Amino acid sequence: MYTTLMGVAAGTALIVLVLLGVELHKGKVTTFGGWALGLAVPGLLLTVTGLHMTLTQSIKLEGEVFKNSIFGELSAAFGVLALAAAFYLWRRGEPLLARPDLVDHLYVIARPVSIMVFGLGLGLLACTIGAFDYQIFATAPQAEPIMGTWPKWLVNTGLSSLLALPAVGALLAPVAIWRANRRLLGIAGVAFFAAGVGWVLTGALVYYTHIAMDFNLRAG
């Protein structure tokens, strides 16, 4: 199971996206090549792993199958969005730098695709509500340190928050883009950045907890 890689990749893409937005508004972007790579790498990982999880239903544990939708479908969708952004920046980035209205032009370009972002925000919101209502992240076995040994409510709240934060960002960002509202976009950016850091740290941590769980289960 590769939810660990998904977490690191999704978090990285969110962080790169926010940092790009900050640099754009500061007028400090001199080339889009590096930013395109920064989105393409996690975007490709998310697309491949997300589609595989969605199509094969790779999480097969009883009572856990629904997580294929939460992780697989949302990862695949975000991955495609990241790849699309990377491709656009790679193909059109340099001519864009010559435009005096660069930021305003990008608002216009982003408007149609922001509708998809809003839809994903609604999906994330639904997943967040479901996560809190049904404690879906409080299922780790005792053999898994932290995730299985810390208070269930704390683990569930923490992981559910990692769905809530990007939900807030994905619901606010399209409104900000259509209105060209930089303040509102900044709030969305804070939510995305916090979610990105949270997912990277959680994904990295779970590499350890999975290793420890495997050894604990074998030790009996």
Automatic annotation (TrEMBL):
<feature type="transmembrane region" description="Helical">
    <location>
        <begin position="184"/>
        <end position="208"/>
    </location>
</feature>
<dbReference type="InterPro" id="IPR009324">
    <property type="entry name" value="DUF981"/>
</dbReference>
<feature type="transmembrane region" description="Helical">
    <location>
        <begin position="65"/>
        <end position="89"/>
    </location>
</feature>
<keyword id="KW-0812">Transmembrane</keyword>
<feature type="transmembrane region" description="Helical">
    <location>
        <begin position="34"/>
        <end position="53"/>
    </location>
</feature>
<dbReference type="Pfam" id="PF06168">
    <property type="entry name" value="DUF981"/>
</dbReference>
<feature type="transmembrane region" description="Helical">
    <location>
        <begin position="153"/>
        <end position="178"/>
    </location>
</feature>
<protein>
    <recommendedName>
        <fullName>DUF981 family protein</fullName>
    </recommendedName>
</protein>
<feature type="transmembrane region" description="Helical">
    <location>
        <begin position="109"/>
        <end position="132"/>
    </location>
</feature>
<keyword id="KW-0472">Membrane</keyword>
<keyword id="KW-1133">Transmembrane helix</keyword>
